[in-house]
Specification:
Largest sheet: 8 strands, mixed
CATH topology of the largest domain: Dihydrodipicolinate Reductase, domain 2
Number of strands: 14
Strand order of the largest sheet: 8-9-10-7-11-12-13-14
Order of helices and strands: EHEHEHEHEHEHEHEEEEEEEHH
Distance between the termini: 52 Å
Number of helices: 9
Radius of gyration: 19 Å
CATH superfamily of the largest domain: Dihydrodipicolinate Reductase, domain 2
Number of domains: 2
CATH class of the largest domain: Alpha Beta
């Protein structure tokens, strides 16, 4: 296939360390243009062209797809702008601040006839795909526990700014909620939620109990607690344990403990770069292929659950 020409909006840590290198290394993608407010940061990603105006990337004739790697509050305006310009879009997680924003993005993508994908890169990891496959065969009620915690966000970081979509729920809680929904299905209710709010007004720790017709889940995300990521699912005849790091395994071997009817087996996965798997899959879809990409419907389900947790914690 002819390589997909990518334009980036933003040149921060994930764009520069995670996504740009795999675009450069890919046979199905090229880094055509990067826009950053600081031109030197855009140039550091070594695109064919570096600019300071996001609009110019959206309007560029030599850009097929746009990767949005901006603070959370900037996702909606720039995703919609790129979609309306006829560009396919890959946008960093969380796709949007709430479910209404995801719906607006989805509608804009449908109207333009282009691809919209949330860059929840862990969903392309072979271990996560394996867990999803195993859970798809579980018809009986299940219990899920998922968490993502780490201590300390630097002062001045957008994650501590409520006006920019900060807070643990949107940053790390969405990983835990996404895992829970793979076990429970998309239609969940919140039984309880608690948040610890910091001096800037964002949630520093969030926890919640969820319920659906097929089971229950506990989720937790925190900027205050020791570094830990995990995912545990129990269903009749099946127990799954995804050890640390459950959601951010990157270029390292990983494992999954599967217990069937009391017999434990550890499945192993070789080192891989899930950013590479994501970029190649989305590029394939942009080019008209059928590679698996995270459906917008799943991103919307996570956003709805985030809304419910946020509302319950505020009561």
């Amino acid at each position: 296939m002819t390589p997909v020409r990518w334009g980036f909006l933003g040149a921060g840590f994930v764009a520069s360390r995670g996504v740009a290198p795999v675009v450069h290394d890919s046979t199905v993608a090229v880094l055509q243009c990067v826009a950053a407010r600081d031109l030197s940061r855009a140039e550091a990603l070594e695109p064919a062209r570096a600019v300071t105006e996001y609009e110019s990337v959206c309007e560029a004739d030599d850009v097929d797809a746009v990767y949005v790697s901006l603070p959370n509050d900037a996702h909606l305006p720039w995703v919609v702008r790129a979609l309306e310009a006829g560009k396919h879009v890959l946008c960093e997680k969380p796709l949007a601040l709430d479910a209404d924003q995801v719906r607006a993005m989805r509608d804009a993508a449908d109207a333009a006839g282009v691809v919209l994908v949330e860059a929840a890169w862990n969903r392309w990891h072979p271990r996560t795909r394996r867990v999803a496959d195993l859970l798809s065969d579980v018809a009986a009620p299940s219990v899920s526990r998922s968490w993502f915690t780490f201590p300390g966000v630097p002062d001045g970081n957008y994650r501590l700014d409520p006006s920019r979509g900060g807070g643990a729920l949107l940053d790390v809680g969405c990983y835990a909620i996404g895992a829970a929904l793979l076990a429970l299905g998309p239609d969940v209710a919140v039984e309880a939620a608690q948040a610890s709010t910091g001096p800037t007004g964002v949630d520093l720790t969030i926890s919640s109990a969820l319920r659906s017709p097929v089971g229950t889940a506990e989720i937790r995300g925190s900027f205050q607690e020791p570094e830990s990521q995990g995912w545990h699912v129990e269903a009749p005849g099946l127990v799954l344990d995804v050890p640390h790091p459950a959601f951010t395994s990157w270029r390292e071997p990983s494992s999954l403990v599967v217990t069937r009817d009391g017999a434990e087996l550890t499945e192993t996965f070789g080192s891989c770069d899930a950013y590479r798997l994501m970029v190649d899959a989305v590029s394939d879809r942009v080019a008209g292929g059928d590679a698996w990409v995270l459906p917008v419907s799943e991103s919307l389900a996570v956003a709805r659950a985030v809304d419910l947790v946020r509302e319950a914690a505020a009561r």
